[in-house]
Design a protein that fits this description.
- The structure is a single chain.
- It contains ten helices and 15 strands.
- The longest helix is centred in the first third of the chain and has 19 residues, at about 5-20.
- The chain has a domain at about 80-345: TIM Barrel.
- It starts with a helix and ends in an 11-residue tail after the last strand.
- The radius of gyration is 21 Å and the shape is globular.
- The strands form two sheets. Strands 1, 2, 3, 4, 5, 13, 14 and 15 form an eight-stranded mixed sheet that branches.
- Helix 3 packs parallel to helix 4.
- About 25% of the residues lie in helices and about 25% in strands.
- By secondary structure, it is an alpha/beta fold.
Length: about 425
């Protein structure tokens, strides 16, 4: 940003601050432990909201200026969580899997109760049916719904549709990405089976044309496709390898049979490849995650791979996945980073995942519970843990959209 642009931004920010200085705050969150990675805040702060924006972040804000006060004492206040791997192109067309059918889920039913304000459908729609997804889901949801467009024109319909290389059109995919830059943040390749690099080459080409990252759900093949070639030679820095801690037939894992992390995996992360959790119903094993983390491979982003096949099994929801990582080697700041600021940067949405003054007021208030808990992976294996995150309250665009225990409300007789 040049000096002229800096000056212009400073003037706009000053005018914005002056415009709200004489107004009451719509919401004041007091005494919460704020974790805002972008602004290097990790301490007890107050946050004021007015007209859907964060307008003040300070050690102490006078409550007399607030219409509504939330006491967040003992709770954690973070930017609204971002789930960069979900499946939300729900519909009623039979045999379409995650593309306008029954296995995908409506966003609002599964977002706010987990502190999520932004959810990214990955691959449900392709260039042929994205506008259906936009009209049917994106435009009708209170949750902010974004998309990784599938390189397959008909989207993630399973079976032969996802194996059709002739429908993996780089140019048409890039054209739709460019047409809807506010909604589409990347391109997805998933479930291709066979020893063939052409699908990877086509999705990367589409990403190059449209200047967005790609996400790879590496399919199966026999013999195995070399994972080191994908991570070191095919993908670009900023591209995303999802299902990082999976151990499935037909795909190389990141940890070998002797619990040793393959050296090329850390090398790939160092060159900028993004390692995403993408837990799902079959793509997260403690036998991979625990040794990998011990040997230095922590996830860049933590996500759910939410769909009907994962939500009632070991995955459950984003906070449950975050809690697993709290109990196997990550600290609170790291799991918040992986679901807020780092997730926002990965999808090139730096307007999200932070609590800067002037930013949209997307906020999650979390409770870090202490006790005895159990967590299950997709291999039906369990660990015991003593920490678990729970969502107390979610604010989206300055509006309270979820309040578990009514902490934003007065008592009935007050």
């Amino acid at each position: 940003m040049n000096k002229k642009s800096n000056l212009k931004y400073s003037i706009i920010l000053l005018l914005f601050c002056l415009s709200i200085s004489s107004q009451d705050y719509d919401i004041l969150i007091q005494n919460g432990h704020v974790i805002d990675i972008k602004n290097k805040i990790d301490d007890v702060y107050d946050i004021a909201i007015s007209k859907n924006k964060v307008v003040a972040v300070s050690k102490k804000i006078d409550l007399k200026d607030a219409k509504r006060v939330i006491d967040a004492s003992g709770l954690i206040v973070v930017p609204g969580l971002i789930d960069i791997h979900s499946h939300n192109f729900h519909g009623t067309i039979p045999n379409r899997y995650l593309s306008n059918s029954f296995s995908a889920l409506p966003p609002d039913g599964f977002s706010f109760r987990s502190g999520i304000t932004t959810i990214v459908d990955v691959g449900g729609a392709g260039w042929r049916n994205f506008e259906v997804f936009k009209n049917q889901v994106i435009d009708r949801s209170q949750t902010r719904v974004l998309s990784f467009l599938n390189i397959v024109g008909f989207g993630m319909q399973g079976g032969a549709v996802e194996q059709n290389i002739d429908d993996m059109n780089s140019e048409m995919t890039a054209e739709i990405v460019k047409k809807y830059p506010d909604e589409i943040v990347g391109i997805k390749l998933a479930h291709f089976n066979g020893y063939n690099w052409l699908p990877v080459d086509r999705v990367v080409k589409a990403g190059e044309i449209s200047d967005v990252p790609v996400m790879i759900d590496f399919g199966g093949s026999k013999p195995l496709m070399p994972l080191d070639s994908l991570l070191l030679n095919k993908l670009r820095p900023g591209d995303i390898f999802t299902h990082t801690y999976a151990n499935v037939l037909g795909r190389m894992s990141i940890v070998d049979a002797n619990n040793k992390l393959f050296p090329f995996v850390k090398k790939a992360q160092e060159r900028g490849i993004i390692f995403d959790v993408g837990h799902g119903g079959g793509s997260f094993a403690f036998s991979q995650a625990i040794p990998a983390i011990i040997q230095g491979l922590k996830p860049n982003t933590i996500s759910t791979d939410l769909h009907t096949g994962s939500m009632n099994r070991g995955m459950k929801d984003l906070l449950n996945v975050m809690s697993k990582f709290l109990n196997i080697g990550l600290n609170l700041k790291e799991v918040v980073t992986a679901t807020t600021w780092d997730a926002a940067k990965v999808i090139k949405r730096n307007d999200l995942g932070n609590l800067s003054v002037g930013s949209v007021a997307d906020i999650a208030i979390l409770n870090l519970r202490k006790g005895q808990f159990g967590f299950v992976d997709t291999k039906d294996k369990k660990i015991k843990g003593d920490k678990k995150l729970e969502c107390e309250l979610t604010i989206k665009d300055g509006q309270i959209v979820y309040d578990l225990n009514g902490i934003s409300n007065k008592l009935w007789n007050e």
